[in-house]
Design goal:
single chain, 164 residues, alpha+beta, Arc Repressor Mutant, subunit A, Glutaredoxin, four-stranded mixed β-sheet, 7 helices
Length: 164
C-alpha cells in the first residue's frame, strides 16, 4: 500500500518497492536521506535526476540538498555518460547463478569493467546489489528493462540489440 500523503514513485518498476520499503522503515525522516539514496543506488545502480527528485519530494527536502549529498559522497554514482546502460545485479542470488561469467563476457567484448563506459560512449556498465527479481537470476537491467536467466551469449545478444 502506498502512503497517499507521499508522492508515488516515478514508475511501477518493481525496484521502487525496495526504495519505498527503506523510506517507510525510516518513517520518511529527513535525516534518512543517505539511506534512501543508498537504497536507490543499490536497486538501480546509479542516481539520476528523476530518482533524486522523487527522494526529495518523498522526504520533503529541497532538490538542491539531495544533489548536494549525492555529489558529496564518492560512494554515490550519478547517471553514467553512456548512451545505453547495463546494470548487472551482483546480489547473492545473481552472483551464484553466474554474474561473474556475464561480467567476463562484457569485459572481453566491450573492454570495460564495472563503473566504466566504452570509448565510443555507447555503453556504461554498472552494478546493483539486488534488483528485486532474484527468481530470474542472473539478472541484468538494460536501458531500464530487466532481463533474467541470462547466459553470457544471451547477454551479449541483448546488448547488441540495444546498441544497434
Ligand atoms: S540478487 Fe539479483 S535480483 Fe536479487
Amino acid at each position: 500500500m502506498f502512503d497517499f500523503t507521499r508522492p508515488d514513485p516515478p514508475s511501477d518498476d518493481k525496484r521502487w518497492k525496495l526504495v519505498l520499503a527503506e523510506m517507510r522503515k525510516n518513517g520518511y525522516a529527513q535525516n534518512s536521506l543517505i539511506q534512501c539514496l543508498h537504497a536507490v543506488q543499490s536497486s538501480f545502480g546509479f542516481l539520476d535526476e528523476e530518482s533524486m527528485r522523487f527522494v526529495a519530494n518523498a522526504l520533503r527536502l529541497p532538490l538542491s540538498k539531495v544533489y548536494g549529498v549525492a555529489t558529496f559522497y564518492h560512494y554515490f554514482t550519478m547517471k553514467p555518460p553512456g548512451k545505453h546502460t547495463c546494470v548487472l545485479c551482483t546480489g547473492t542470488a545473481c552472483y551464484i547463478k553466474g554474474v561473474p561469467e556475464l561480467l567476463k563476457a562484457i569485459k572481453e567484448k566491450y573492454k570495460i569493467k564495472l563503473g566504466e563506459t566504452t570509448e565510443d560512449g555507447e555503453l556504461s556498465l554498472l552494478s546493483a546489489r539486488c534488483v528485486g527479481a532474484c527468481g530470474l537470476a542472473p539478472v541484468a537491467v538494460i536501458d531500464g528493462e530487466a532481463v533474467g536467466k541470462l547466459t553470457p551469449d544471451q547477454l551479449l545478444g541483448k546488448l547488441k540489440e540495444a546498441i544497434g
